[in-house]
Amino acid sequence: MRHGAKRVVGWGLGVLLGLASGCGPSQTGASTSTKRGSRGDALITRNETLYPVADTHVMEGSPTTSYGALTTLEVDGSPQAEAYLRFAIPPFAGTLTTARLRLHALDSSMDGPSVRNPPGVWNWSELTTWNTRPLWSGSWVVADVGPVLRGTWVEWDVTEAINLQRNTVDVFLKADDPDGVMFASSEHEDPTLRPRLVLTIESAQDHPPPSIPPLPVSGAPVAFAPSADAFVSADAPGTPSGGASVLLRVGNTPQREVHLRFFLQGLTETVQRAVLRLKVGNDGSANGPSVFETRGAWTEGSVTWNSRPARVGSAVDRVPVLTPSGFVDYDVTNLVRGNGEVSLGLYGNSTDEVGFHSREVSTQRPELLVWTGASRSEPPDACMTRQELLSRTFVPLHDTSVVQSSPTTVFHRAASLSVDGWPQAESYLDFDVQLGSRPVRRVLLRLYALDASGNGPRLFKAQSFEGATTDWNHRPAISATVLGDLGAVSRDQWVEFDVTSVVTTSGRHAFALHPDAQEDLRFASLEAQKRGILAVAPQLLVLSESESFCSYRGGPRPSGTVAWVTQSGGLPAERTRHVASGREGGYVSLSAVEPLQAAPSSFEQVDVVTLHGADGASVWSREFAQAGVEFRKVAVTSDGQVLAAGEYFGAPNLGKGPLPWGRGMFVARLGTSGKVEWTQGYIAWFETPNVFYENPMEVLDLATDAHGSAVLVGTFWGYTNFGAGVVYSGKSFPTEGQSPNSFLLKLDSDGRLRWSRLLVASTARGTKASSVAVDSEENISVGGWVGRDTDFGVGPTFMNGLFAARWGVSGNLLWSRVFPVSHGDLHGVRTLPDGGVVFVGAFDGNLTFAGHTYSSREPNDAGDGPRDAVLGRLGPLGTEEGLRHFQSDASVSLSFQGLAVDETGRIVTSQAGWADLLGLGPVGLPEGQAPNRPTLASFESSLETRWVRVLEPLHSGLHLAPVEGGIIAAGDLANPFELDGTWYTPTSRRADVLHLKLRP
């Protein structure tokens, strides 16, 4: 905050509702009950019970009489009688999942009334009569019931009638046949019988990020028995257990540890998952042990407490609740990388000792289950023919729970699926599955556990059902065959059932979860995801083998083949931000390491700048863990120093003192050993006499020249000062429907201002300078989107469109070109050896280039519609020399992501979409089967396609950097990835950085 002014704080839109006034008596007696969960739990469910602020009925036989003061509500079909109720909705935090109207019946009816909710009909009060009743056209039925019994509660699901934009809800009851019925009103002498509206509100605001689902493995595991197992005890430190015990005991009173060793052999592919499975003895635990890696020599017959191996690192897995005679699976994938020895230890977390069966009990001995990738080999032919494991995920058509103690209540709107032995609760899921024509390898049902249990449910096949009509009395029939039986389950864990044997045809497939223990266990439902509470809906995962396809076209070989691959391997997730060329075949990379799931929510990501040698190995690496900092771009100077730029908030110290307080951007230079040599910070702001706005700045690209200058483009709002005085962007502060204008900034090698230029449009969409490149003569080329009235240096332009412009060393404009079009972006520019410019972008509308008009798929749509990709070339003086338009249609499209020019002057791009559009014929799988596959392509400087290569899915676009002898492509590895016959698997199922060097 500056000058004592008020700082602007933005609030998100939540569910915050005011109470209505002037519509009947004030509400008294609203109550709250917490059904499940407490603060910090995975899912908090609570019920809010509301009572009417007004209710009445009107009768056709007494058209001028009001009944608002009566103790009853009457609904009848002959003569007609209608009842009306109004409830005030108080403010609440969370998500409304279900609203149930409950009325107490004072007599019986063969067919109870229906609830109506005509929109905009609120003109009634407790003084309303038949003659003044509200009228509407249409039925507007939101809920109905069947027979009504005297002395029972009747319930309607009126969730669809709740409009959270209003602070009240009105419901109208009309008879469906002549048989009338009477209910207790809000004036009834017995308060316990009065009408009520029960709101079920659910929240997961304190839930940590959901755990990562298991990797989708395509085959059965290989089971390994231990080569040695034993337990050691602190109360007998020099005495071995002899390795002959049938139980392996672990606990803290006395301290006892279990040690296991496995020897893996015969694995021919990369490990994708590994699970330690143990059978629990007769004594369970509510606080089970943790699994660690261990190191050190030991033998089963002689190991003691004093000679035991040492544990290494942090716990790999833990399952807290263990049921006697149950089993437990520990995920140890991080410790099993292939053939060889694996040593594991179990360490107690409480005095509650537990025993596991040892290898001396052959039928219940420990197992290490290992899944590997499907067998692959390097493609031998010219088009690199290969197959791919395709994964398709289906969410339920319906899912619900049924509860024996509430036999007529429907729970299909709940955010969780409950399974319990007492009171009995079961859950059902129904999927509509399309298997396709290819052979299915596996079908897996995945559920996300919200609670821990020592003995998870059993799974059965069930008949298809409709969620809205399924209660305990009308639950689906199930088959007698148990498809799966879960053992111990941890909270916030994905569990998995293999249902391949029963999902053999396309169509409806339903499943039932029945309890195997008397403890409540909840799984996230589809409703939790649909309503934005938790994005962990049940999944049916179908894994199938694709047909053979060409993954490469063009040439000449070995162009486009991979020289080497590197993969990061830390436990936290690491994601690629940027790569840039270095010296002598090396390069620099920028990545972000995410906090572990167990880390406090205050922990932020760590930005990592790494200088690599020509073989991809790290020369040095520097971490920046300061809060409020986002590194965006890096570059390497001709002297081997590294420039970095990004955004910040506050006054972080990146190594050379605090940056100016505020919100803005920074530039830093790191020396040849990674030490920070200087930093510069710039803030953006706008202020009125009463309010100071801390405005955002954004770094979009960074380049350098032969003298080590830093050249940046980006955007900002309001004012800033680059060192030559305050300048204004033309846009005061972020406003809906507006976008910011841009800057071009050049700093010398010591971080001092050389010059800057603002690109300011008068249009709602500001000018956006997206990309910058510096040529051998140190001229600066910039590309992006330009708005009307932008001045590149010779006066305002009078059109919108894509643009490219070039400035000289001292900031003088050399040329500018605008390509008129309604919508689009030019998001990559690079310079060619002859001084020309190559660019990639996308547009919607009619694009004019070199006197020719190119039309997108829907050129005349009113807004910004589907965009077509373009690759273009300009001459050294900005002449429009060539453009390739990659025409999309409703089913196929292409979008460029990365752009580089290799040492020979050829163009390399990365893109997602249908690679056939690149012009070399069929390559990759059809877009409908495998959409948005990462693709690499090379073009001559004339824009003619040289080669195209399609890769397996990655979790990011590919960033490109030219190096001696090829191109570096960097992306995020978050699923098993096969390349040239070798599988690459992410560490700890999160994300690793993958670097490929492609031959030019």
TrEMBL record:
Residues 49-200, 222-370, 393-530 form the Carbohydrate-binding module family domain. Keywords: Secreted, Signal. The keyword Nucleus does not apply. It comes from Myxococcus stipitatus (strain DSM 14675 / JCM 12634 / Mx s8). Gene3D superfamilies: 2.80.10.50. This is Carbohydrate-binding module family 96 domain-containing protein. One of its GO terms (cellular component) is extracellular region. It is found in: Secreted. PROSITE patterns: PROKAR_LIPOPROTEIN.
